[in-house]
Amino acid sequence: xxxxxxxxxxxxxxxxxxxxxxxxxxxxxxxxxxxxxxxxxxxxxxxxxxxxxxxxxxxxxxxxxxxxxxxxxxxxxxxxxxxxxxxxxxxxxxxxxxxxxxxxxxxxxxxxxxxxxxxxxxxxxxxxxxxxxxxxxxxxxxxxxxxxxxxxxxxxxxxxxxxxxxxxxxxxxxxxxxxxxxxxxxxxxxxxxxxxxxxxxxxxxxxxxxxxxxxxxxxxxxxxxxxxxxxxxxxxxxxxxxxxxxxxxxxxxxxxxxxxxxxxxxxxxxxxxxxxxxxxxxxxxxxxxxxxxxxxxxxxxxxxxxxxxxxxxxxxxxxxxxxxxxxxxxxxxxxxxxxxxxxxxxxxxxxxxxxxxxxxxxxxxxxxxxxxxxxxxxxxxxxxxxxxxxxxxxxxxxxxxxxxxxxxxxxxxxxxxxxxx
Length: 421
Hints:
alpha/beta, eight-stranded parallel barrel, two-stranded antiparallel ribbon, 37% helix, globular
């Protein structure tokens, strides 16, 4: 059976004159269709082009109530404040067991399992971010959805989180490969982001140029690709809009690894145009009827001064920060204070720290326990809505540990207790 589905934009007309009325009519007709046929199939024309959304996808009934934003906090349907605390499941979801870095196929054992979700839940975690998902897996060709990715992988991950009562953050990875990734494995961006528009990027600078153009709404040749990205989120939102434990996180670390071709003028400009694309994606998600909280990651446009507020309700900002060989724990605290000031007190939105811990190196000798303990204690004093440690794959018996042997069993248990208890 064919597993790929062609989709195009149906929501953008709501931003034009008369679009509000058409949007209301669309939702009314959609309700009639659901009542009459017990499935969802909507076709909306724009300039002679149609979009067909999937059938009702994953409908999950579970104990969680959907979160909503109240000022700078997250609350559940009873009005109780919810603080998200969990782990990022990173780069190992589809890796075959026993060290192979090749993606698994359905039915093969993988490193990330249902038992891992149970372990995180029992340790005290109430959220997991699925941090492996790349746009090319969801949409291998422009506007062509690979439904098998959802039925074979993502639907299961979402259902595991439901079963163990943890919130599930669906996140699309950024488009930039690191220099090491580029040399070893090649691009992580979809081929359709550059094919027919640029030569194939083979280094960091050429990769950065494509990514800059994608996020710069003044660059017309990337407009079809930007709309395809929005369409991908329209599909995801429609599939999981009836899953109250799902949270949408639009893009991870946008514009990361592109600083080498940025200057003060382009950084400011990209901070503004990034918000245009984010607003389009948010509106597309909402136009499917999805009401979940949406996380918006900080664009990597040099300093925080270049990040601009987004005028949409029920969103939270996300940012990341590590202790590294170049950032001491005291410097980490100072930078964290600046982030809280920007997003919580200036923008008046919740702030989710989606990555923290130690990095470069992952396990710094002598200080990794003290640094993590101080981070956890310091975050407890900040007005944030949640925190997510990076990442599950370094624990004993997981993929990154298998390759690099980071933490033994005793250290792994200490880590879980430190970040989740």
